[in-house]
Amino acid sequence: MPVVTLYFDRILKMLEGKVGREELINKLPHLALDLEEIQEDHIKVEYNPNRPDFSTDYGLARALKGIFDLELGAPKYDIQDGNVKVMVEDSVKSIRPYIVGLIAKDLRLDEESIRQLISMQEDLHHGLGRDRRVISIGLHNLDVIKPPFIYKAVEPSFSFIPLNENRCMSLRDILINTEVGLKYGKIIKDFEKYPLLVDSNNNVLSFPPIINGELTRVDINTKNLFLDITALELKAALRALSIIASVLIDMGAKVERIEVDYRDKKILTPDMKSLLMKIDFRLINKLLGLKLDKDEIFRCLRRCRLNVVKKGNAFYAEVPPYRVDIIHPVDIVEEVVIGLDLERIKPTLPEGANVGKRDERSSLLDDFRMALISQNFVEVMNFSLLSKKLLYEMVNREFSDGIKVEDPKSSEHEYLRDTLIPCLLQVLSNNTHAEYPQRIFEIGKVFLRNSNEEPVREEYRIVVAIAYSEANYSEAKSSLSSLLYNTFGLDFETKPSFHPTFSYGRCASIRVDNEDIGVIGEIDPLVLENFGLKVPVSLYEFSYDKLEKKFKARR
Amino acid sequence: MKRALHSLEKRVILTLKGKEELSLEDLRKETNLSLDHLRRAIEWLRLKGLLSIRREVFIKVKLDEKGLKAHFEGLPERIIIERLKEKGKASLKEISKEFDRDEFSAGLGRLKDKEIIKVDKGEVILLRDSVLEEEVLISKLYHGRYLQELNEREKKILMELKKRPSFIKEEEEAKIYVKLTEEGKRIDISLEREIDRLNPELLITGKWREYSLRAYDVEAPVSLAPMGKKHPIQRVIDEVREIFISMGFEEIEGPLVQPSFWNFDALFIPQDHPARELQDTFYLSNLESKNSGGDYREIIAKVHENGAFTGSKGWGYKWKGSEADKLVLRTHTTAVTINYLAKYKPHNTKIFSVGRVFRNEKVTYKNLVEFHQIEGIVVGKDVSLRDLMGLLKEFYFKLGLKEVKFWPSFFPYTEPSLQSVVYYGKLNRWIELCGMGIFRPEVTLPFGIKEPVLAWGGGLERLVMLKHDIQDVRELYKNDLNWLRKVRLCL
To answer: Which range marks the domain in which residue B153 is found?
Structure first.
């Protein structure tokens, strides 16, 4: 979850000095915020990704003012039309078609406000921007560039001095030889041309979505700012822009619109128009289980910095454009919850009687579990995702057609198990220091390829292992007989069989009604050696699902 | 005759055999049994008529304070004799020096009676010197003697000594003697040998009577007996399951592999949502579902794109069926829940599930790639957020967690959403457990579910860790047999 840093001196000042440290910290959960870290001069707060407007201390202060009853209703954001234009060339249409932006004048930046801006930029890149793929944001010192700006696509050989470099680099070079190029290059690298934002003197502002030019670097001396957002989706870009515009205004800047000229149409950004969302009183009271009157609901909404307007006979919440999370009247319900203070909602229990019931299979599986426990077996629990090495090599199986997951963080969790045997041998291997005999079992799902509509079939298996100096085939078979007899009351046969994990001549298939349901035997010394085991191991594994079918067919 | 006798009884009989009678004390010395064991054996044998008990009361005669003084310093008579010895005679005044007047005159009187001295005109003359019988008796009584042990003469002297104040004391003492009865004498206990253990042969033939079992060191430490046991995670699963059932919930179960449609799309999670990316979710390589969601594909596409009839604005992007067909390892059990709700469209139900879920995360002390999730669902015409809070309180109460607080929260498919924290007394802190909320209309309406759907869920491993005071979640899946064997059932 994204994190925002609050320095006490800044945030308490933003709250007009009317709120204390403790009071602030105690209020955070009321806004669905999690305190991540407390330091002497600051705290770090986690916010939910649906609230990108919480990505700066300015944004949080705005919400806190409502909850502390310092300011109610939606803040007013005045924006003037400016005279900066961005011309969009058709060449970007197929690559990264949209650009929006704004001008912020008379900024008074300091180290912390710049840090807040950059942290917001990163959070927006990651969340709304889907790691810069959908939107990417550039901040520029307006005073060193000359509008109008031109957004176009250029050859990869085009070169300029990127931010934090002291030499000219080609766009292609940037993708290969810079950290950001390697990280975000995949968004554009398959295109023949790359997007570029330049001023009227062809000075480079940015190479979106990768990096800005060194020329327009923003620091504490920057007075006037130009900000651009290039995007795959116009809507996402406009949302992000509203969030940024409201923060810049809160910082005390004068924000001006720019005109974006797409040739076929011109748009003015940012658009700070509010959205109207119906206040559904019935829905609110039904979902909350309360009987709130209109005024109470209105007060809650105003505390959440929403205005209430009447249109015809209906009431609407006026939702500021930075509140990108509100898309349905049901979202208004949550605003009421936040504005109301949850302490006021007294828990009740739903009426009506329902009869509880256990899943049949889970209860049958438990019968098997208890039967094995009464044979002195200890239950173990392993993961479904295993390494290729464990699932195949270690147990002497040839690799074929395993079901694999994409891009696992570790090769330890790469293949879905199609047998539980390696898991049990692994447990024995990790426990060579523990007292013998060791008797263990696992009940778990395996994953098998399937030819039907759903390409993966899941099956419950039961696997049992006995390890100690005297472990042998008969003891395992005797345990299996007792298990099957005492649970489903089923007879089985053991027919000589070959399995690469087991010793030749001491391995059998377990058959019920002539169907193969599992394997039993003594583990091959080669495999024992792979697992570093110094005692014989006898083991059996069978398909619970197949067995259950046989049982039900006879019942 | 063969009789079943306890090994203690046998030992007593063997000791008494051939002897007329033994005192309890002697018997204890010879059998080497504790007094307690011996008393028991005697009582059992007496009840069986094999042994008789005789109780005798003895008077033990001991020296009292003055008697002891006389033993160490001599009788007054002796002191007088000693003083006379040097010259054969002395004045009364001379020998009465430092004497208690009464003692002196009594001693003098006795010596006169025995004609050992005579007094003549204020002068005492020693006639002879001899050991007094009293002196002999006193030294005999120094260690105490039973009255019976004294002969008639001694008894007579004792009577005399008793007349002297604080000289002699008498104590009554009971003594127990046992002897075999005639029946007891006939009991045939052959020479006993010690054996280590019984065996069927000894028991069948009755030969065990000829042996006694070697005594063990009953205080010696032993190893733990092997015991089969459920995995601690399974035990918590059982506990949670029982709580749900007691609250009227029905269990549902479903596949771990799910098409993205049910895991994400059906829950109104947009196709470009970060949670759907490879770095968070496990996608199966080269395997896809076909036509996942079936008839619901069209409506779900519209809900995502513009909200359709749900009253929502939607996400405003172009929905792709191919994205929905990608197979994932379910990231939450809600995939199974929504599938169930879409299938049965219940107006009023309570269901729950406990099962594995997967996240493509780096394994750390607090994150696993696979873990268990618990989920409770209530569908009903009039159910509300208050009910959801009430259900959670009840659920926690049954888990032994009595203090609950609720905060607003966010989940992509519920609105409103809450987070709950519970007070965990053992650690003295508040712990985040289950998240909850009411399914968004964008989730329920497309499947024809008209009633509110309350949902809550959370990780199960957290509960297991709290119960066993474990800080590192990886410990739970280590399957360390030493731990599994020792972990307590009752917590």
So the answer is: 62-166
